Amino acid sequence: MSGKPRLTYLNGRGRMEPVRWLLAAAGVEFEENFLETREQYEKLIKDGVLMFEQVPLVEIDGMKMVQTRAILSYIAGKYNLYGKDLKERALIDMYVEGIADLMQMILMFPFSPPEAKEKNLESIKERATNRYFPVFEKILKQHGQDFLVGNKFSWADVQLIEVILDVEEKVPAVLSGFPQLQAFKTKMSNMPTIKKFLQPGSPRKPPPDDRYVEKVLKIFKK
């Protein structure tokens, strides 16, 4: 083994993309094993590799980790992106959980039936502009610092820049009323590790298309 974390998932965003983002932001190189068939997935289950018969799977530090939240928490703690004390960790957890609610809507959007696409897109826009982005705009404005927690780069910042860019792909002007988030986006996008991840040819995956949706359904639907 190379010692690099090994990620097993499909060759697409899904629930693994926040893991890719966090590792990349921490400057950690990783390897990827892409599932292409249902047989590959079933073999992982048969071999007892997937504790709850679900991916993502991340092999790191001798562990076979599943459950996205547990994986992200471990990576954040290992690479000093999880605050300096329990209070900062609690703030990071709150912010991450809030962002995860919006990310879940984005995650499910490609699987919407055609007749529901427009309505679901409007829901993403409405939630982003009225519920989630105002919270982070206020946080950044009130403490006047570059980062969300303790004026130190953390897991919460990584999740926020990821979800901002994901929403912007669907609603390009979504940040028009949020000057603090616009500045945050610019700062984060120019951090060396994140800038590298945003370049063509990086492990960052493109927006899911119909082929990706078809593959997900083929591998995971019984």
UniProtKB/TrEMBL annotation:
Domain of life: Eukaryota
Pfam families assigned: GST_C_3 (PF14497), GST_N (PF02798)
Domain GST C-terminal: residue ranges: 85-209
SUPFAM superfamilies (UniProt xref): GST C-terminal domain-like (SSF47616), Thioredoxin-like (SSF52833)
Molecular function terms, GO-annotated: glutathione transferase activity
Domain GST N-terminal span(s) in chain numbering: 3-83
A GO BP entry: glutathione metabolic process
EC number: 2.5.1.18
Keywords noted in UniProt: Transferase
Family, similarity comment: Belongs to the GST superfamily. Alpha family.
Stated name of the protein: glutathione transferase
Organism for this UniProt entry: Eubucco bourcierii
